[in-house]
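Inputs:
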Amino acid sequence: MGIEELKFEIDDKGRVICKNHSNYDHLIRPCDYFQDLYLDAELTCKTCSHYENNDCYFSKTRIDEIIKRGLKKAYLCRLCGKKIDRMLSIIHKLYYKETYDVEMPLICCDCYEKIKSNEFLSYSKKMTDFYILNIVISIFFLCYFAFFLSILNVQPIFYYILIIPLFSFVCFIISVVIRKSIKKLRYFYFGIKYYKKHFPNQESKV
Ligand SMILES: [Zn+2]
């Protein structure tokens, strides 16, 4: 008979551990530095015998589907948009949503650490500044590069075979950097809003 109720615990690093996991004792055992380092890779249903025997609350097919969606970046940190790698965190969220209709936010380990030390707002401000600076430098570089090319005195043929392809390539790289930075800024904007709404007592330490 399969497991009907899953139980979880969260360790001091914010890692979700499934109490029904067949390696549970190993997962919670005090670890040295290297064991601790590799623990993340073991926090998955793939290493659990209930997955192998297909007798978990989540079927084997469902778990495979969750892993597939995870690889496609379907599960992102609610605060910064980083991809969530820890599968048990995703399972934890899905289980609470399906069983109790409770929306658990997915939070990456970096954000979790910052929330714990009450530094999330200053961290997100630094990251926001970093991405704004990225955009400004990218635009400045592009303008400077365009100006440099415009004052080059070369044969027209070089414009077609070298300058135009090179400029197009640089434009492409810059557009990727700017798009990624805007995306990150958007995540942090909504992440900060979410944080302020759900952690109102921690606002002071900006
Ligand atoms: Zn995060």
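Residues 118-202 form one domain. Flag for discussion at group meeting.
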